[in-house]
Design goal:
Largest sheet: none
Helix content: 55-70%
Shape: rod-shaped
Number of strands: 0
Strand content: under 5%
Mean pLDDT: 88
Distance between the termini: 78 Å
Low-confidence stretches: 1-20, 410-420
Radius of gyration: 32 Å
């Protein structure tokens, strides 16, 4: 009688897809050779028959997922951070040249560098005298470079009115770079804040139940063929894991859109500065020929060699709006990060079968109804960055209209705009 019972048990286990002798896949995943068939005694996995997973194994799967999931979820976000950091460094280099290509005193250069750094964090400590000094010194530096001679203080005074257009162009060029660096400061802060809190326990449990990438409840049966998670199941789990990041995703996209617009403005302001420099050069040549006093005092400006006028710079950004959108997009993450999803013959969180639920919209309302990851997401406050974004956005629009974004007076007028 006992032999018959044993044979029946082995047949029952085999017919339900469980290899009682090995549980090899889950043993290998967890590094635990003591795992055997039992149960069903489960809190997480939706299983009706004996399997390789009991409560202790489920807890081990959750911890395994906890160690891996967060880095995978934020993989694309981190790649985007590194991408924008490359352009930020390029713009920082352009800003450094604004200061170093002038004949200002070292003390003044250090002071301006500190104020430029403060501007990038949203604090404008630049004075009217600062702006007069930097635009004049920059204009003189550009003229000296194109003529390949040093422009003396006396000649600067004699060219006071002729240099006004170039001075204004230099100030707009500076404003476009500083404003873009400020945008990067806000954007990188938002990305950093997105990754500080841990994901929720419900997220990790949902990932185990759904078998995302690194193994979960689908291994409990230890079948010979691995079943990939169903596409819609993966999307619901990841959007649920990121339900606390909905606002962050929106502002990453907003900021990226304005940074792309600003990059075009930097290009425009650079070309306008080059055009103003070339025009001033032509005016200097004309004045040397018609104004005897100017010729006598500034004949050195004729120069023997002349340098080119255009600024060499690759205006293409290494990212676009789609890259920003994909950072926290569940569909993109499921396809390109959690590869191995399937439309058919897929794991639907309890068996290899169709996943019949809908994909829930990535919004507060949609995620409230998400069945895979219940509860609230992690609380992440970006209120300070949102306020900074409002002022930044306003200034981008001001710069687009050709207006000043550096003077202290304009900062006081635009510190608290009332719209997004």
């Amino acid at each position: 009688m006992s032999k018959i019972l044993l044979l029946f048990t082995l047949f029952f286990i085999s017919s339900n897809g469980v290899n009682s002798e090995s549980c090899s896949k889950i043993r290998e995943l967890l590094g635990d050779d003591s795992i055997t068939v039992g149960g069903p005694h489960n809190d997480i996995c939706i299983l009706d028959e004996p399997s390789c997973c009991n409560k202790a194994v489920e807890n081990a799967l959750v911890e395994k997922t906890r160690d891996i999931l967060k880095n995978r979820v934020f993989l694309v976000l981190n790649q985007f951070y590194q991408t924008i950091d490359q352009d930020s460094k390029t713009k920082q280099s352009m800003l450094t040249k604004v200061i170093t290509n002038t004949n200002l005193s070292q003390t003044k250069k250090v002071s301006l560098a500190e104020k430029f750094s403060a501007y990038q964090t949203g604090v404008n400590s630049l004075t009217t005298d600062d702006l007069d000094d930097i635009k004049t010194a920059s204009a003189v530096g550009s003229l000296s470079k194109i003529l390949d001679v040093t422009v003396s203080s006396e000649c600067q005074n004699l060219l006071y009115f002729e240099m006004e257009s170039l001075k204004n162009a230099e100030l707009k060029y500076l404003g476009s770079i500083l404003l873009m660096l400020r945008g990067y400061n806000i954007l990188t802060t938002v990305i950093t804040k997105a990754q500080v809190p841990d994901l929720t326990d419900e997220c990790y449990i949902g990932a185990v139940r759904g078998g995302l990438k690194f193994g979960g409840c689908e291994l409990c049966h230890d079948t010979t063929e691995f079943a990939h998670p169903c596409v819609k199941l993966c999307r619901n789990i990841l959007s649920g894991c990121l339900k606390g990041h909905i606002q962050i995703r929106d502002y990453i996209q907003y900021l990226a859109q304005y940074q792309i617009q600003l990059n075009k403005l930097v290009e425009t302001m650079t070309k306008e500065r080059d055009t103003a420099t070339a025009s001033l050069k032509a005016e200097v040549k004309a004045k040397l020929s018609r104004d005897k006093e100017f010729h006598d005092r500034c004949s050195a400006l004729q120069g023997e060699q002349e340098s080119g006028t255009s600024t060499q710079y690759d205006w293409e950004l290494s990212y676009d709006e789609k890259d920003a959108r994909n950072t926290l997009d569940s569909s993109w993450l499921c396809t390109y990060v959690f590869s191995g999803i399937s439309e058919v013959n897929c794991w639907n969180r309890s068996a290899v079968a169709e996943y019949k639920l809908s994909v829930y919209e990535y919004s507060d309302e949609g995620q409230f109804m998400n069945p895979e990851v219940p509860g609230d997401g992690p609380a992440i406050s970006i209120e300070d960055q949102i306020e900074q974004y409002k002022d930044y956005k306003y200034k981008v629009e001001e710069l687009s209209a050709g207006r000043d974004v550096l003077s202290p007076a304009r900062l006081r007028l635009t510190r608290h705009p009332s719209f997004l």
